[in-house]
């Protein structure tokens, strides 16, 4: 990937004013930055985004902030001052998208709600991301990832059958905002090409997790009861899950009858393919313990490397269970350039996770590093708002910008 490639991405020319902080909102604006949008991250004086203070730190920079703010530009503006509010309104008038993830009502109290901003810029796409959405009895309740996992039903499904529910390892309750927010924004930008008008988008993180229940929700509709926890296994597919290996374990997934026959050959039990006890999905599900024991008897006598070779040869869906550092360094991640090096203003060269969406024959440059606090304040004020150096200096002396 050439860092000299000039193509920013399909959203080149789209400007985003970003009032987000912590995770759900920054994940959404991160996706837009990855696609080539110019993102102006509005941060308060002092500490900026709260995640700048989340340990562990390196030379004053937080791992958390670095993770979800690549490719953005930081401008420090005091929203408690009238001059600061006037600046961001002027900036919003020159942008295509606004993203915010304050509690419902906060932006209205600041005079920056959708109606106020739409009066200035009727073409603006305004995306509000919150725990429960802009309506409903819980709209004003604070929420965090684990709270949303619990309220959506997702937490009840995760964990071993005989234990307590277990939080998902990645904060999907928050990150769903980074998925649904950009989907809504991109569709509204497409609509604006036809109508010339912007739109308000209401993204609820709880709605997003409920939407991700997928077939689990449909199973509850079918049965009229809660699906039970099955740990790393599947409620209806067998064998599917984690199996013991010599000095480790391995994942095996059997989704279709064709994969069942491949597994039988791989574990040197081809006769099981036609065994009337296990020859349908329903029979294998009902005989879960027996089937799992048969597979485990084969896997537990072999190393993970041996099993990977065997299941690869038989085209069985499988995987070794990699740690995060090993996953980031694996050959597939390297081939896809999922880890790249970028130049940070204070840390120097640092590794970052690369954009997850690629465009064939149109590579984008390596993302710029997450900005230090206020790194682009002068640039944005001068180049976007056309303010003179004298005016910028005046605003800085007054504490309006930093």
From TrEMBL:
Question: Do you know which PANTHER family this protein is assigned to?
Answer: SUCCINATE--HYDROXYMETHYLGLUTARATE COA-TRANSFERASE (PTHR48207:SF3)
Keywords, sorted A to Z? Transferase
InterPro entries per UniProt = CoA-transferase_III_domain, CoA-Trfase_fam_III, CoA-Trfase_III_dom3_sf, CoA-Trfase_III_dom_1_sf
| Name recorded for this polypeptide | CaiB/BaiF CoA transferase family protein
UniProt cross-references to Gene3D superfamilies, sorted A to Z: Crotonobetainyl-coa:carnitine coa-transferase, domain 1, formyl-coa transferase, domain 3
What molecular function terms (GO) are annotated for this protein? transferase activity
């Amino acid at each position: 990937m050439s860092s000299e490639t000039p193509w920013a991405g399909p959203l080149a020319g789209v400007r985003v004013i970003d009032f987000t902080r912590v995770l759900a909102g920054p994940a959404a604006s991160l996706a837009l930055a990855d696609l080539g949008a110019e993102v102006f991250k509005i941060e308060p004086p002092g500490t900026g985004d709260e995640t700048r203070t989340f340990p562990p730190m390196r030379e004053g920079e937080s791992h958390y902030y670095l993770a979800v703010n690549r490719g953005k530009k930081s401008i420090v503006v005091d929203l408690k001052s009238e001059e600061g509010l006037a600046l961001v309104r002027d900036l919003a008038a020159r942008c295509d998208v606004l993203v915010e993830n304050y509690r419902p009502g906060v932006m209205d109290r600041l005079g920056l709600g959708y109606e106020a901003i739409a009066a200035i810029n009727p073409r603006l796409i305004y995306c509000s991301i919150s725990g429960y959405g802009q309506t409903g009895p819980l709209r004003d309740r604070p929420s965090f990832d684990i709270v949303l996992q619990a309220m959506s039903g997702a937490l009840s499904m995760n964990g071993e059958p005989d234990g307590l529910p277990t939080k998902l390892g990645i904060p999907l309750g928050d990150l769903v905002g980074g998925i649904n927010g950009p989907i809504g924004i991109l569709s509204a930008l497409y609509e604006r090409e036809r109508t010339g008008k912007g739109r308000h988008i209401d993204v609820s993180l709880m709605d997003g997790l409920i939407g991700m229940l997928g077939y689990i929700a449909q199973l509850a509709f079918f049965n009229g009861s809660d699906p039970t926890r099955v740990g790393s296994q599947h409620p209806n597919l067998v064998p599917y899950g984690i199996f013991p290996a010599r000095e480790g374990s391995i994942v095996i997934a059997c989704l279709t009858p064709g994969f069942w026959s491949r597994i039988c050959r791989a574990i040197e039990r081809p006769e099981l393919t036609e065994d009337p006890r296990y020859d349908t999905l329903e029979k294998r599900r009902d005989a879960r313990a027996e089937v799992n024991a048969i597979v485990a008897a084969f896997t537990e006598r072999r190393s993970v490397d041996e099993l990977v070779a065997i299941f690869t040869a038989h085209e069985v869906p499988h995987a070794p269970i990699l740690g995060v550092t090993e996953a980031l360094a694996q050959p597939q991640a390297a081939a896809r350039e999922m880890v790249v090096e970028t130049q940070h203003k204070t840390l120097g060269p640092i590794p970052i996770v690369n954009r997850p969406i690629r465009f064939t024959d149109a590579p984008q440059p390596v993302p710029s590093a997450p900005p230090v606090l206020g790194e682009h304040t002068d640039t944005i004020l001068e180049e976007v708002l056309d303010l003179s150096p004298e005016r910028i200096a005046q605003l800085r002396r007054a504490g309006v910008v930093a």
